[in-house]
Backbone:
C-alpha cells in the first residue's frame, strides 16, 4: 500500500506557474474589459460626449444655441385649430405638455393617402431615439391608442435634451400596425430642420374631435420641461391674443415653470420665452439644423 502511494506521488506533476508574460496578458485583458464596460456605461449616461459612430450625439448643439429659437414649428400653424401652452408645476392646473389640435372635419371615414394628413416636422437637427407605434393612453371607456417620437435635439453637460411628440388621434383603431404608415423615421435616424418625420392621422369628426399632439421636452435629468425651442414670432403666431403673455416677452409657450422645466434659462418663470437679450445671438441655422 505504501509503495502504491509512493508511485502515485512520483507521477504527480508540478502545477504550472503564471509567468510574468502570463500576468501581463491577464492584466491587459481585465483592463480592457473594465474599460469597455466603463465606456458603455458612460455612453448611456452621457451620450452627448460621444461621436455618432459610437451611437453618441456630440454633434448636437448646446441648448444655449436655441436662445433665439427655431422658426420651424412642429406642424404648420395653418393646420392648427386649438392650442394650449405647457402649464408648469407652479400652475393651478399643471399639465406636462403643450397641445395643438386639428380640424377633423376635413377628413372622411375612409383613410386618405398618408401625405394628405398634416405633416409633423423636425424644428432643428435631431437624432431619433425612440418610436412608439401603438401606446395605450387611459383605461376603460376612455382608453385610446397613440403613436409618438422622442428625439435628442440639444445637449448640455454631455447629456441630451429631448423633444417628445405624443401623437394622439384619440381613437383605438384595433390594429397595432395601423399608425406605422404615418411614421417616416426609425430609431437611430438623424434628421434635419424641416424634415417631415410623421403625419398626423385624423379620424373624421363623427368619430372624435379630440385629436391632438401633446409635445414637451425632457431635460438632462429626463424630467418633463417646456418645449422652448421656437422663436418668439412663432410662439406669438401660434397662441394669438387669447393666451397668456407678458408685456415684454409676448405670448408664452410655457407658463409658471420651475427652473427644471425651463431648459434654456434654468430659472423659474411665469412665461417663457422671456427676455433673452443677455444670450449670444448665435444663429442656429448655421450650426444646429443640418447634420447629414
Residues:
Amino acid at each position: 500500500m505504501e509503495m502504491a502511494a509512493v508511485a502515485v506521488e512520483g507521477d504527480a506533476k508540478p502545477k504550472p506557474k503564471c509567468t510574468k508574460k502570463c500576468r501581463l496578458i491577464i492584466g491587459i485583458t481585465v483592463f480592457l474589459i473594465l474599460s469597455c464596460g466603463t465606456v458603455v456605461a458612460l455612453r448611456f449616461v452621457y451620450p452627448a460626449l460621444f461621436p455618432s459612430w459610437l451611437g453618441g450625439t456630440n454633434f448636437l448643439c448646446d441648448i444655449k444655441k436655441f436662445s433665439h429659437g427655431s422658426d420651424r414649428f412642429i406642424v404648420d400653424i395653418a393646420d392648427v385649430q386649438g392650442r394650449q401652452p405647457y402649464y408648469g408645476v407652479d400652475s393651478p392646473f399643471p399639465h406636462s405638455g403643450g397641445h395643438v389640435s386639428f380640424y377633423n372635419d376635413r377628413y372622411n371615414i375612409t383613410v386618405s393617402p398618408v401625405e394628405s394628413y398634416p405633416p409633423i416636422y423636425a424644428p432643428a437637427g435631431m437624432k431619433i431615439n425612440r418610436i412608439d407605434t401603438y401606446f395605450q393612453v387611459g383605461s376603460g371607456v376612455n382608453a385610446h391608442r397613440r403613436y409618438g417620437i422622442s428625439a435628442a435635439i440639444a445637449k448640455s453637460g454631455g447629456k441630451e435634451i429631448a423633444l417628445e411628440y405624443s401623437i394622439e388621434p384619440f381613437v383605438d383603431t384595433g390594429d397595432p400596425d395601423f399608425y406605422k404608415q404615418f411614421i417616416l423615421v426609425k430609431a437611430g435616424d438623424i434628421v434635419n430642420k424641416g424634415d417631415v418625420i410623421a403625419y398626423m392621422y385624423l379620424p373624421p369628426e363623427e368619430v372624435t374631435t379630440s385629436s391632438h399632439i401633446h409635445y414637451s421636452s425632457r431635460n438632462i435629468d429626463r424630467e418633463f420641461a417646456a418645449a422652448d425651442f421656437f422663436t418668439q414670432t412663432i410662439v406669438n403666431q401660434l397662441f394669438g391674443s387669447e393666451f397668456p403673455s407678458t408685456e415684454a416677452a409676448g405670448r408664452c409657450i410655457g407658463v409658471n415653470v420651475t427652473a427644471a422645466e425651463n431648459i434654456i434659462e434654468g430659472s423659474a418663470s411665469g412665461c417663457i420665452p422671456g427676455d433673452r437679450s443677455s444670450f449670444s445671438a448665435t444663429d442656429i441655422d448655421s450650426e444646429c439644423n443640418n447634420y447629414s
